[in-house]
Amino acid sequence: MPELAPVAHLVDRDPQVTPQQMADSLVPPSQFTTASFASYRPDPEYASQAEVRDAVEAFVATQPEPAKRGLFGRKRKEPETPARSGVYLDGGFGVGKTHLLAAAYHAASGRKTFGTFIEYTALVGALGFQGAVDLLRGTSLVCIDEFELDDPGDTMVMTRLIKELSETGTRFAATSNTPPGALGEGRFAAQDFLREIQAMSDRFDTMRIDGLDFRRRAVDESASVVDDVPSVLATLSSVTTSRTGGPARVTQDDFRSVVAHLASVHPSKYVALVDGLDAVGLTDVQAFTDQTDALRWVALVDRLYDAQVRIVASGIPLDTVYPEVMLEGGYRKKYLRAASRVVALTRAETEASAETEPRAS
What we know:
Elements: H1 19-24, H2 47-61, E1 86-91, H3 97-107, E2 112-116, H4 117-127, H5 129-136, E3 141-145, H6 152-166, E4 171-176, H7 194-201, E5 204-209, H8 214-217, H9 229-239, E6 250-254, H10 255-262, H11 270-273, E7 279-285, H12 291-306, E8 310-315, H13 324-327, H14 332-347, H15 350-355
Parallel strand pairs: 1-4, 1-5, 2-3, 3-4, 6-7, 7-8
């Protein structure tokens, strides 16, 4: 039986991340290290899953033609649409979009990167726009997971980045819960940036994946709640070995303290905030009253899910922390994605949850 590690606190962590570390982390999450098109298991009830898998595999296998124009450029003498430089996977939660994106990354030849939307915008923030372009120039494939435009600044950054890179032959694969033409709807004045959004969407072949959320198919449709977080964490630590070989590394905090701490840490550092952890304990979970806090929490959930960090929580179920007024707004799909992921993280053993079903998004 492994030695118990001392319980630490998430709120005591203040990670420092260098631009080079950000660049080095642009690879698929650990649970998708071996993701492939062959290991993707399409649901026979939804034909689009197998169709999109085959289409993405064909896209990666096809050698791109030399770039002749940029994202916004069109041939003046020919009224044709711009050449497609990417695939965009649109679908609900847990239908396998991230698995297929990771499979594309592993199958692609040459230099390639894989990151969430927020990781790319954070890279621009750390290196400057031109620095990010210089770093990514020459990349054969850029994979962008969770493509969501939450503010005009992000819109301009990503459209410019895609424009610059596509002009030099870089291709893109992206996933989102929102069709590209609808990005930003309900969140900011999307009509003011319609040209930029439309120009970006014109560069992608949009592929719709239908299906049910596998994370909720095998479990009750609610996140698990415990009465005594410290006791569960102690038991977990006593029978679990850390992925590094030592005692399991866990943290325990009041939920509201963690939410407050997130305001002092840039979302680009959330990856480092949960690095090396096996479980996170949260006491007295309560519903959100502030949307900014709720969105920060969503960003943390994404990083916990990528790292397959188990959540042990008391209070209300973590998939019920968003009041109806928030679920009726423009961030509804973000909140539902986070709800889906916390169901899995509160009910599954860390590593086992990643292997019971290779399709995840």
